[in-house]
Structures
1.
Amino acid sequence: MKNSVLFWAFLLLTGCAMGGGKQDSSNVYSAPPVGSSIELKTALTVPGGETRVYLQRGVVVTKKALDRYYPSCNFELKKLSETDRTIQPEAFLVVRVQPQTSEIVYHPQPLQLAGLRSAGMDGSGRPMIMRALHLWIGSDRQPDVMRLTCRGGLDDMAWASPPSIDAMRQALGGYASLILP
């Protein structure tokens, strides 16, 4: 019963925070709506053997160089290819917005034995998670381009949040613009 009350209170408060009025681009719970567009201004190369190209702090970064504690975005293709592919400049229409939460198993340091650290945990018993938004995009000219995914930083479950519109724009830098309807 208690969980049910908390769930409905959360939904009510979230609904009020996201309801009517002007979109607040600094609010982490104010997602870009369907009908927004992503205007890619510069061609992006997706490396062979990959389906994504990552952007963080306004520059292209490799998956290995990605700072998981800072907001980032990536364009994603539907099909894997062994050769490099280029996503050409175009205005992509956002046709669906999907929130996502992922528990991250991330070990930047060498593996510790004897159960000193649990997989996916920060050592305190709480999972580290990353909240993200999948912006599903459509294109007749480039049908293999599937979506733009933007993530907030990896954080403790209690503090993790999706990226704000401002954080998404900062991650995209001069490569792409996020335009709200």
Note: Residues 2-18 form the longest helix (17 residues).
2.
Amino acid sequence: MRAQFVLSEIGVGLRRNLTMTFAVIISVALSLALFGGALLMREQVSVMKDFWYDKVNVSIFMCNKGDAETTDKCEKGPVTADQRKTIEGDLKKMDIVDDVYHETADEAYKHYREQYGETPIAGMITPDQMQESFRVKLKDPEKYKVVATAFEGRDGVQSVADQRNILENLFNLMQGMNVAALGVMALMLVIALMLIVNTVRVSAFSRRRETGIMRLVGASSFYIQMPFIMEAAFAGLIGGVVACVLLLAGRYFLIDGGLALADKMQLVNFIGWDAVLAVLPLVLVIGLLMPAVAASVALRKYLKV
């Protein structure tokens, strides 16, 4: 097969169907950008989970005077010194516990004032209304239920709370956004495939005289189909390159420049450029192969001479 002939046929096909080729490029670019964005979103959720789950604590809140009147769990009154000592000792004996920190009611009140001192409700809270607690750092945050089972219902314990529950809502939201992005990506992918098939069909129809002559002089089906397949692959590759540019620009705009989330949300561990660069080859490969395969399948039906 002469490469010069194939390349010239590709150029002819792209010029004849310029508008549809442009539509294919845009559709492929958007679908692959959404695909890459979904992969990066999943990586971001994984990074944030690893970062935050390693820092969350299990909080064991003790009964205070007010709890004795409002909850059955503290009907025996506020926690005593012996109960507090026993709970702390049992916590330190557990193999899954990495560290235990005791926060008194006064310390809890001080921290509360530091966070909410400017709000109207802050003036209504007094130190005796605050709960002392044990903040427990686990070696494996997934074993929260072991601590909850061991201490919930004990005398002097008002409740056991896992801070992971606060983060789960955020992670579930991000996962939902990820699923939505994948759904839109699938829709765009279907549209791109339909455009590719239609473009190949129109291109094959417009060149039916040439392909008929090539068939009569003994050209193989592969030789006849190759220019059409390479046209689709070339358009898909351009779309993949555009998708890569969108992903790089999106990462820069959202995290480093523009919105500058890295500066505004310093407690969040964002994905680095290495994660983005790792996705780009996959995007390019899919952008190249997907249109080529679609074109090959379409030609079996529409390229009949």
Note: Residues 1-52+168-303 form one domain.
